[in-house]
Design goal:
By secondary structure, the chain is α/β, with parallel strands linked by helices. It is built from twelve helices and eight strands. It has an eight-stranded mixed beta sheet with strand order 1-4-3-2-5-6-8-7, with helices on one face. The longest helix is centred in the N-terminal third of the chain and has 16 residues, at about 70-85. It is globular and about 55 Å long. The relative contact order is 0.17.
Length: about 290
């Protein structure tokens, strides 16, 4: 496994919370995309989109995040995948485990880390007196709905057979961890640096935070999504929780608004794919896929 970093100095600083695992049902839609020998762009966040893409056969992954700490967490997860069996991996990352972020286990992989990531984790362990359980339960993590049942349900790679496949695949995969905002990506990517498969998680829920325009959904599609689109690639542009909810988290959650804006895109078609919700198995979530 080869990991490289790309840092950009003009990122706006903001408070961060690490997500230990994905909060969406990745397993509900991952088979709707082709990853085998593909070049993938996705969010870093919890690292789960990266590992699931590797499990599905991606040859290279570029993972970006506005929070560099999420990149360091993703690196930690990738090294744990490479060096721990599934049971140890779960014991290390699950919040209620006695071995949660256990310092002895961390010490087994820390020397394989990049210097920036190693220094970050060194400082976090120091703040918590090298008590991994205390660190895992500290305020740097968003621990809402942080249960093992949900994490196993969301993530195909946490299946015992699939985990072994992910371990094998990660050895030959190259990963770039990029500290950058989505809106900045198009200006640094050249035409020859396009991606086959793009997963953007639920970034669309936060477009009002980084696009100052009254019609931010239109700007999001025009300035962030279309520059990443080619004639042949596929982009997951939104994740919508509880599609039948009367409450919208953002404009793209509003069925009328999103269909109006998506139908303006004449060059490409799109589809909405629904599946079991990450919130409640009796409900449904969906993704928007640009074809």
């Amino acid at each position: 496994m080869k990991i490289e970093y790309s840092f950009f100095n003009d990122i706006k600083s903001s408070k961060f919370k690490l997500y230990s695992f994905a909060t969406e049902n990745i397993g509900g839609y991952i088979d709707c995309f082709d990853f085998v020998s593909k070049k993938v762009l996705t969010v870093a966040s919890s690292g789960d989109h990266v590992i699931n893409a590797i499990f599905k056969g991606a040859k290279s992954v570029v993972a970006f995040d506005i929070h560099k700490e999420a990149l360091f967490y993703t690196e930690l997860k990738l090294l744990a995948l490479q060096n721990f069996d599934l049971n140890t991996f779960l014991e290390f990352f699950m919040i209620d485990s006695k071995l949660a972020l256990d310092y002895k286990l961390f010490s087994e992989i820390k020397n394989k880390m990049s210097s920036d990531a190693r220094e970050f984790w060194k400082q976090e362990y120091k703040k918590n007196n090298n008590d991994g359980f205390k660190l895992r339960n500290s305020e740097i993590f968003n621990n809402t709905y942080d249960t093992i049942e949900k994490k196993l349900f969301y993530n195909p790679y946490l299946n015992p057979k699939n985990y072994l496949i992910a371990q094998k695949n990660v050895e030959d995969c190259s990963v770039v961890l990029m500290h950058i905002e989505l809106i900045q990506l198009p200006r640094i990517l050249t035409w020859n640096n396009k991606f086959d498969t793009i997963l953007l998680s639920n970034i669309s829920d936060y477009i009002e935070n980084f696009i100052s325009d009254k019609n931010c959904l239109e700007k999001f599609l025009k300035d962030c999504i279309l520059p990443l689109k080619t004639k042949s690639n596929e982009i997951q542009i939104a994740y919508i929780y509880d599609i039948n909810s009367a409450k919208s988290r953002s404009d793209i959650d509003d069925k009328v608004k999103r269909e109006k804006e998506l139908n303006k895109i004449k060059l490409y078609s799109w589809q909405e794919i629904s599946f079991i919700s990450a919130i409640d198995k009796e409900k449904q979530d969906s993704i928007i896929k640009l074809l």
